[in-house]
Amino acid sequence: MTELDTRLVGQWRRRTEAAAAKRYAGHLHFQANGLYFGQASPPDTFTWWDGGTWAIHAPGRLALSTANDAVVVYRYQLDHDTLTITDASGCRITYHRDA
């Protein structure tokens, strides 16, 4: 069963600047309708999370549709205004909620 974690709804800015994290969106916007939009940083570069659907497949498991339209499930943690998403290789990408 899929559902949404409404705590994720809103604007997020990537804080992790490690090389492996740069393929992921610099800015994320999760909408309450299950859609998200990603913006590359710097602009006009490739981002794996360009936009599509998002859902929670299980506690701590965030499913995002990716640039090739595949739906990939990631581990995630939310601590107040800090969102950490971990990919299958162990790369941790940290985002901070934009005000």
Written description of the protein model:
This is Lipocalin-like domain-containing protein. The protein is mainly beta. It has one domain: Lipocalin (Beta Barrel), CATH 2.40.128.490. The chain contains no helices and 8 strands. It has an 8-stranded antiparallel beta barrel with strand order 1-2-3-4-5-6-7-8. Strand 4 and strand 5 (61-65) form a beta hairpin. It is globular, with a radius of gyration of 12 Å.
Topology:
Blueprint lengths: L9 E5 L12 E4 L4 E5 L11 E8 L2 E5 L5 E9 L2 E5 L5 E6 L2
Antiparallel strand pairs: 1-2, 1-8, 2-3, 3-4, 4-5, 5-6, 6-7, 7-8
Protein name: Lipocalin-like domain-containing protein
What tags apply to this protein structure?
Lipocalin-like domain-containing protein, eight-stranded antiparallel beta barrel, 99 residues, mainly beta, Lipocalin
Summarize the entry for a quick read.
The protein is mainly β and 99 residues long. It is built from no helices and 8 strands. It has a single domain, classed as Uncharacterised protein PF14869 family, DUF4488 (Lipocalin, Beta Barrel).
Order of helices and strands: EEEEEEEE
Write out the CATH superfamily name.
Answer: Uncharacterised protein PF14869 family, DUF4488
Average pLDDT, rounded to a whole number, is: 94
Largest sheet: 8 strands, antiparallel, barrel
Q: Please tell me what the overall shape is.
A: globular
CATH architectural name: Beta Barrel
Fraction in beta strands: over 45%
Task: Give start-end ranges of low-pLDDT stretches.
Answer: none
Termini separation comes to: 31 Å
What is the overall number of helices?
0
CATH class reads Mainly Beta
The SS-based structural class is: mainly beta
CATH topology grouping: Lipocalin
Number of strands: 8
Share of helix, binned = under 10%
Strand order of the largest sheet: 1-2-3-4-5-6-7-8
Radius of gyration: 12 Å
Count of individual domains: 1
Protein name: Lipocalin-like domain-containing protein
Organism: Metapseudomonas resinovorans
